[in-house]
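Students often ask why we bother encoding 3D structure as a string. The short answer is that it lets us treat folding as translation between two languages. Here is a chain of 356 residues written in the first language.
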Amino acid sequence: MPMRRITSVLLAAGASAFAPLVAAIEPIPETPGWRGFVVVGGAYTDVKSNVVAGNDLVDVGRETITSINDSPRSDDAAHPLVGGEVNYTFGNRWQVFLGTSLEDAVTLDGVAQFGARKDLGGAGILQGGFLFSALPNEVWEDPYAEGVRRESTDRDSGGLRLQWDRILGTAFEFTLSYRDIDIDVERSGQGVLSVPCDAACQGLLRRDGDQYSLDLSYRYRLAQQHLLRPMFRYTAHDLDGDAVSGESYRLQLSYAYFAQAFTVVSNVAFGSREHDEANPLYGIKTDSDRFAVDATLFYRLPAASGRWQLVGNALWGEDDSDVDFHDTEAFQFSLGAMYRFGAPGRAPPVIEEKPY
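And here it is in the second language, the structure alphabet:
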């Protein structure tokens, strides 16, 4: 969990239907061969936001605003949910892969990854990959344009991601990500009528630039059927505009319950976003506090192959900004089926093999 993405809330939460609580990197099987998974389903998303426009599959967001002081209005959409990965395992515990992570798929972050994994034995599992936009998100060319029809534009990104799971035989996981963000047509501030916004003002609002994220998490098994995963994320937003650059922090607590036929995963996340400079349209920084909560049910379907799972998720989150225009609230419900294919030897994603 997706991408930004459908909303800043879903990004801030990261607590998506398939959040990598149980095994961020699945154990690499000893037997070589092709393997993978595909997720197909649908979702209903209700968003209050003045800055997002969805993506090629999801159309949300109001095309017009009357004033840069408008609070966001609700808009909803039903849309498909598709993701998957294909990988090949070599005999020496190397694995190459291409696809979308389960987390990114549900947050509607259209990022895909091509990379490799290596099981280092007692040192853990190392994974590295190139990130690219398989399905670019859409934002408004000028989110502040007053009294006219706003045009949407693609928000592309590419970069690198490095993960180290089960560090030195422990339950710690470390992830480092870099993304180069590109707004196809950037016109922030050009359509504002109520306040002056010259070239210098518009420069402070430019959303292109670099983003760096660092995650640290720990999986703790309370009992055979209960697992906790606290996580901390720090993100540096090094964007062209100082009014949109800054830092963000997130604390997340995830919980999983394992039963014979199903698994329940829930997440609670708190966060904040701090900006380097004041937004010139308002004269203050658009800092915000963020909160999100979600729950997911994985149900093993009684199919003969044992490769099918039904997956349902509900998520709610909000982003409470110091400027009402930038407030965001989102609700999402999704339902889909996941099918695992290929050679045997890979554990289902809801089973944790290590006794942490």
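Translate back mentally: The radius of gyration is 21 Å. Keep this in mind for the problem set.
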